[in-house]
Q: What sequence folds into this?
């Protein structure tokens, strides 16, 4: 069957512009190898793209070749404790197929649109239950990929060091076409919420961390409130969902982003707009404890799929991770930063800031929690005007506070941020990449700036 090839159509899901000369859709690994071996027909850089859900230009192919893995969309095999899938399978599709068999991944992402190939080689931190399992790539036990020279290789966990590098290689060392992931029996998860002022949160922080739960935080910096969402595995519990929780969940996922967009476009006065947003956030906080009573569900049920059209999603964000021990004081500083920024520029994010507790995870070279337990901070937006400028200043704040970014979920990243956060790890990876791909077949301008 002939290789499908088209001209570029422009932007990815989040509006990051792409201008490749060629867009190719290989149907098997042999076609991938031919693409990489023929630089004249398929100019460099060749960048593998799954679902175009990265928040940065990490998958941008500049004026080169965009290699879309969407045709590699088969779940190949369910084996004892693992599942083998092609790289183009959407994570949401895989998670639902596993649930039908009473199975799940050790971690379940908040959003299911990304491809399994992207999951395997990028940094996707998730609220974690245990050490060594704080990002989606840590679920990967085997990868099959095509090197920049067109050679196929298979890497397993027996190649521990190489696997650690590949799990955060972002397609710079080869094009992944097949992945094996760990799976386990589906477990009921109890969900509950506790709402605190920032001062109360600091006093109770040690006790909150001591609980055997995955922690997701919802932060309102202008109200100085934080809601702690606990996800507690309970093997004995029966699945149940309160009606008010389902309504509230729908509001948080769908209505609030749309409302934030409307507020931003209709209310031109910054002070009035800010007052309305603060009132809505307070009303949602007031319903949380009642909404979560008796909620027990399976992990795949809180995962959502964003619309295929970018403008319908009304949700974007940026991720940094910070030392867990210092997080309460960091939240106070973040609240003060947001207030100072608003006072100077009359801008505030329309959505609450998210956060996840990450246990130490050294299974990936660029893991945000490589050195120890961390908590993320994720300013979120409906994509309104002013958010990108806000992130430039927020990045300086985060870097100065010792934060760790990601290459695929931290927007407006600079070389200085990368050097400070990753130091020797970034230099080692850059040297390995140059040895593996001396002709820069897979390197785009984004990584040339940040790593080379």
A:
């Amino acid at each position: 069957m002939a290789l499908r090839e088209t001209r570029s159509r422009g932007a990815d899901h989040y509006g990051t512009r792409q201008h490749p000369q060629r867009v190719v859709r290989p149907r098997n690994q042999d076609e991938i190898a031919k693409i990489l071996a023929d630089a004249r027909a398929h100019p460099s850089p060749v960048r593998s793209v799954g679902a175009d859900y990265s928040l940065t230009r990490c998958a941008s192919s500049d004026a080169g070749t965009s290699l879309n893995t969407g045709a590699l969309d088969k779940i190949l095999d369910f084996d004892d404790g693992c599942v083998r899938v092609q790289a183009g399978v959407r994570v949401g599709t895989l998670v639902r197929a596993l649930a039908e068999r009473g199975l799940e991944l050790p971690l379940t992402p908040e959003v299911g649109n990304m491809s399994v190939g992207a999951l395997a080689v990028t940094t996707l931190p998730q609220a974690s239950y245990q050490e060594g399992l704080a990002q989606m790539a840590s679920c990967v036990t085997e990868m099959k990929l095509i090197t920049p020279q067109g050679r196929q290789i298979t890497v397993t966990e027996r190649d521990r060091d190489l696997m650690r590098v590949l799990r955060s290689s972002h397609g710079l060392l080869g094009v992944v076409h097949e992945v094996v992931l760990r799976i386990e029996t589906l477990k009921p998860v109890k969900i509950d919420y506790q709402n605190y002022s920032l001062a109360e949160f600091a006093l109770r922080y040690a006790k909150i961390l001591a609980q055997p739960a995955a922690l997701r935080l919802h932060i309102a910096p202008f109200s100085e409130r934080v809601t702690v969402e606990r996800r507690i595995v309970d093997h004995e519990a029966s699945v149940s969902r309160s009606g008010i929780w389902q309504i509230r969940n729908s509001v948080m996922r769908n209505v609030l982003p749309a409302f934030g967009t409307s507020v931003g476009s209709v209310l031109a006065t910054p002070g009035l707009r800010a007052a309305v947003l603060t009132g809505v956030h307070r009303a949602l906080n007031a319903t949380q404890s009642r909404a979560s009573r008796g909620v027990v569900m399976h992990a795949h049920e809180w995962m959502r799929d964003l619309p295929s059209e970018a403008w319908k999603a009304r949700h974007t964000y940026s991720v940094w991770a910070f030392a867990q021990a210092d997080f309460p004081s960091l939240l106070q500083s973040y609240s003060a930063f947001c207030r100072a920024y608003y006072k100077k520029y009359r801008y505030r994010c329309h959505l609450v800031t998210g956060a996840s507790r990450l246990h130490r995870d050294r299974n990936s070279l660029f893991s945000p929690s490589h050195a120890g337990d961390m908590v993320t901070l994720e300013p979120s937006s409906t994509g309104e005007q002013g958010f990108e400028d806000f992130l430039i200043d927020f990045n300086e704040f985060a870097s100065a506070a010792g934060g760790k970014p990601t290459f695929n979920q931290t927007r407006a990243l600079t070389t200085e941020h990368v050097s400070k956060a990753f130091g020797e790890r970034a230099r080692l990876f850059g040297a390995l990449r140059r040895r593996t791909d001396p002709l820069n077949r897979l390197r785009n301008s984004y990584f040339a700036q940040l790593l080379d």
Q: What stands out?
A: Residues 4-15, 255-263 have pLDDT under 50 and may be disordered. Residues 243-266 form the longest helix (24 residues). The chain has two domains: 75-185, 188-417. The domain at 188-417 is CATH 3.40.462.10 (Vanillyl-alcohol Oxidase; Chain A, domain 3).
